[in-house]
Amino acid sequence: MRALVTGATGFVGSAVARALLAAGAEVRALVRPESASPNLDGLPVEVARGDLTDPASLLRAAAGCDEVYHVAAHYFLWSRDSRDFYRVNVDGSRELVRAAAEAGARRIVYTSTVGTIGYPPDGRPGNEETPYELHQVKGHYKRSKYLAEKEILKLAAEGAPIVVVNPSAPMGPRDVKPTPTGKIVVDFARGKMPAYLDTGLNVVHVDDVAAGHLLAAAKGRVGERYILGHENLSLRQILEILSEIAGRPAPRIRMPYWVAYAASLGSHAAAFVTRGEPAIPLDAVRLAGKKMFFDPSKAIRELGFSPRPAREALEDAYRWFAEHGYL
In terms of pTM, does the model score above 0.90? Predict the structure, then answer.
């Protein structure tokens, strides 16, 4: 069996590629011409150079592949040109899925995000059926992924063999960027978190997210969504676990949301003057305005998804960052 993985140089994508190799699959990775790929070093992976904005390269990459895992995304909480989010995440995803279907892939797994799922008004964790409307979605990354998911589900309704997975907040090894969730670990370990916000995340090990992708391909129902997550933890709980792992005190000061929002506005103003990136992206603060708690029961029930404790995800993330000089 041959599988194409987009985003295989990244955090989740490289974990999916490794899981496929461990399962005996031949793996082809779509890699941008200018992209470095340390996460693929030493792996027996066929590299197909291409880009989500180049439809011809997608057709070449998908040719002969039995399964396609579309993990790649423009994943940032700030961008100088917001159109990049929609060119890559919406248009690129649509073209990739069309190419995979045209190539005859028997199963296409599309990696969405829990950012496309709503929050129940009574405070319970959201699930795949929790309604969410576009006007409620904040930030270009989440809006682009919301719109992309709608496009992908439309293609599934038209006959494309698509299953959607919605990872929560993956943590673990090989987070080379690092991602916004990985940055929590790095910033805490480097003493850059003197205070915390009253927010929360659903934490899951990145390798369990990868396993969930393969389970979705094998057992998922076409046109369905599956949350790949595990433990709902407040940011304070996450920092207390990291305190035990790293042997340094967790912050005790809770920062009011309005202070973080004002600091972000100041950060954006400074970035405008210096032509740099804001140190505190406004979208990151907006995301922290709600506890992003979710219920993965459907994936556990229908796919056999069985994630390990969140503490192991945090331990593995901390160990990898320490071993690779991030701390």
Answer: yes
